[in-house]
Amino acid sequence: QVQLVESGGGLVQPGGSLSLSCAASGFIFSVCAMSWYRQVPGKERELVAAISAGGSTNYADSVKGRFTISRDNPKKTVYLQMNSLKPEDTAVYYCKANCLGRWGQGTQVTVSS
To answer: Which residues, 6+ apart, have CB-to-CB distance to 112 below 8 Å?
Structure first.
């Protein structure tokens, strides 16, 4: 069955870095565009970054220059490297398999001193 398992969240100080991973299984990962979204309580889930099957990327304006999305097809994993983190980056981060419309369970990222 399709599974998306995020990891790497945690507590970090402002200006710090975190790297999120999303391990995929149960579908042909290499042909599927993948995305990272985030959500805070009371707000809609918002797109953070996306990567196509061919490796093209796009980012929300709020994270451009600070976050990098990448993928490793043999490992069936998509990554989100987050640098220069700000308190407003605090959210639950979700991985999405765009071709299937399926979501992971989410991982909490908290940026606080």
So the answer is: 11, 13, 14, 87, 90
